[in-house]
Structures are given as structure tokens and as C-alpha cells.
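Q: Give me a backbone?
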Amino acid sequence: MIGEGVADWAGRSLILDRAGGQSGRNFASIIFRGDLLMKAIDLLKKDHDTVKKMFAAFEKMGSHAQKDRLAQAEEICEELRIHAAIEEEIFYPAVKSVRDKEAKFDVEEALEEHKQMKSAMEDALKDEGQEPAFAAKMKVLKENVEHHAGEEEKEIFKVARKLGDDRLEELGQQLQERKEALQAEDSGNHRQARKKP
């Protein structure tokens, strides 16, 4: 019976669903509302959209706002690092399991694009906001990210849909949990590491 209990977890509502299995055992499944449980491709698409908005905010800042632009660039790079990690650890292996030659190629290409983006992030941040190189490097990073996200949404997500809704929801939960763990770990670590000689 759906809706047997409603609770709130971390400010997000959830519904406890109790259902009887064939053996007569009851089990509880949790259906989250909001951002907690969604299909993997929806979560990753949301990340893509978030980063696009972050780049737009960066571009609106004038070059006179060097400190703000650098802080925004650091946030963009942290978002990208976490996004790449959850894709590499969880999503791409699942897509490769589809047993499709094209899927394996697409994932390998995406991994190479991740390497390029990580290099571009490191390159952009080492200038510590010094213009005009900083703006140029952030533009290159943005173009790399947009290209990668576009291909991923068009090609890899198409293959991922073959996994089915249940598996995509399971992956979505795994991605969200890992993302939250990385956000907790990375809080402040990257800024401190870059400041050390």
C-alpha cells in the first residue's frame, strides 16, 4: 500500500511504501521526492545544466571582479571534478555493461574528454585569475564541457536507457550518494591544496 507513512529527511519529504512479496514478507522501499531519487540520466543532466549556469554567471562577471571570478571558477571546477568522479566510478561502468560495441567506444571517448577537462581545469586555476589568460582558459574549459555534455546526452544517455528504469533509478541513487560523499570530502580541500607550494 503506497503512502503508508510519510516522513521528512533532511528537509525533503519521502513516502514509505510497504508491499508484500510473493513469500508474504513485507519490505519497505523509499520513494524520495525532490532531488534525492531520480534516474541516473536525469541527475547527470541536472549537473550539466547547473554547470552551464555557473559558466554563464562567470561570464557575466567583468574582468574587474577578479576575486569573484576566481571563486566562481573554483566552484565550477569542484562541480566538474565531482561530476566526473561519479560518472567514472558508477555510471560509465554500468553503461559499458550494456554489451554494445558503440557504448564501449562512447565511454572510452568520454573518459578521454574527462582527461582533457581535468587538464584544462588545472591549467585555468594555476593562473589564479590573472587576465587575459584566465578568461581564455575558462572559455576553452567551457567549450570542452559543452561538447562533452552534448555528446553524452545524445549518445551515452541513449545507450544507458537500455538498462531500464529500475536500474537507472538504482544508479541515480548510487550517484547521488557518492556525489554527497565527495562534496563532504572535498569541502575546502581543493582550495587548500592549491595554496600550498
Observations:
- The chain has a mean pLDDT of 79.
- The first helix runs from residue 40 to 60.
- Strands lie at 5-9, 12-20, 26-32.
- The first strand starts at residue 5 and ends at 9.
